[in-house]
Amino acid sequence: MLYKNGYIVTRNFTVREADVRVSKGIITDILPPGAVSDGEGEIDLHGDVLCPGLVDMHIHGCKGVDFSSEDDTCSCLDVMSRYLHSRGVAAFAPAAMTMPYEELCRLMERYRAASLNPLSGAALAGVYLEGPFLSAAKCAAQPEEYIIPPDSDKLRELHRRSGEHIRIACVAPEADGAEQFIREAAGFCRVSAAHTAADYETGVRAVKAGITNATHLYNAMNDVTRRAPGCAAALLESDCFCELICDGIHIHPAVIRLTFKMIGENRLIIVSDGMAATGLGEGTFRLGTQCVTVKGSEARLSNGFLAGSVTDIRTAFQKAVEYGLPPLDALRAVTINPARALGIDGSFGTIEVGKSARLTVFSADLLRGADAAGT
Prior knowledge:
nine-stranded parallel sheet; alpha/beta; globular; about 25% helix
């Protein structure tokens, strides 16, 4: 297949004219414009921009299915894969909710079995284990009754049952034993600070112990104030990747802009935190062991807590641009940055020979900025 008559986003996230040849799901050539077909099919970009496929590293469900509550995990992941592919997603990490440990073990086993079968759309990027090692004080939509203290042996067992596919494991840094947990867990997966009431000093120690990621920064954390900056400030001033839910509900656009100015283009990750209603409309849906009601564009539990988002990652990227983020930097936040955070950047995140040919297209107008298409 030859993509022609358009532009590409380069590995350095500039835009230039080029044609791209793909074969058997892999990028095989990046060519000067005007390449001649060798008999394969062609896709005319009509002046649009070929971009890396998006990476959603934190999504619970979509199109009516929920990763944590479906008995048929294989079918659930196929539904997610096909819908996300339609939204330009190349790879995704389904996120597991807090639930009884025994049920998490069974979920990991179902994931392992499902991972043996190739999906028809977006590829699996491993499991995002959001629960159960969190803070009851900041549980939000995570069921408090199933939260347990950090236990690296339990995590290692979940990792084993998943087929060693846990990419991100979350923990509240202030929990008893969290620092030792982080040190041990960092030996076989990435560790993220999440659902935490930790103060600044505890956050700093957690980063030194091996935290590399902030789960939906600001949400389910103490607010940053002048005398008590909290864990969020420790994560901001570290080298950690910082997730933001850019749905216009979880975080004010001004805070999104300020965060980008603080951490720069290489650490920001836009996530959907999507739940089962994503891609559908209003109604009642599952999120792990709980029921969520969606009205308008908000998903909430009966107690009023936000329960994930109904905004897909492509729309979240577009919203971030509307809020004032530079388009190509916002694109980094949904491609190479999450790919690096998950450790899958050898296959995803940029347009390079040898990488996945799961690509997406945006208009030149959307991506035109400091690096205008055609310069």
